Amino acid sequence: MKRTATAIWNGSGKEGSGNLTTQSSTLNKTQYSYKSRFEQGVGTNPEELIAAAHAGCFAMALSFALQGAGLTADTLDVTAEITLDNGTITTSHLVLKAKIPGVTPEKFQELAAGAKAGCPVSKVLNAAISLDASLV
Hints:
- This protein is 35% helix and 35% strand.
- It is α+β, with helices and mostly antiparallel strands.
- It has two domains: 5-38, no CATH class; 46-135, K homology (KH) domain (GMP Synthetase, Chain A, domain 3).
- It has a three-stranded antiparallel β-sheet with strand order 1-2-3. Strands 4-5-6 form a three-stranded mixed β-sheet, covered by helices on one side.
- A hairpin with a 6-residue loop joins β1 (5-10) and β2.
- α2 crosses α3.
- The radius of gyration is 17 Å and the shape is elongated.
């Protein structure tokens, strides 16, 4: 399986702007700029997209792990916070709030830790990855 995305950038780094388009067209000429990346401008940015990818990947990996253990979540609510420090992504912090009927706290923590380590986005990130997982 291969997936693609295209970035178009016009102008200088600080005054320029660009757009991002994904193969699925979920992002279709979605705006990004210096302001949306480093300030509070309109549009997305690479770090926000990595956070979305990590949250989604982890949630799906945990869902498959639960399925393998004979469990199904009612809800997996995942937030990923990416930290960009001096031009380097240094951390991705996952916060999971899960509602999973029949899971023990020990099994939940085991499966969550496995999903954190095993999801493809975790594997590609060269950053410290932390997880706060709680049952609700």
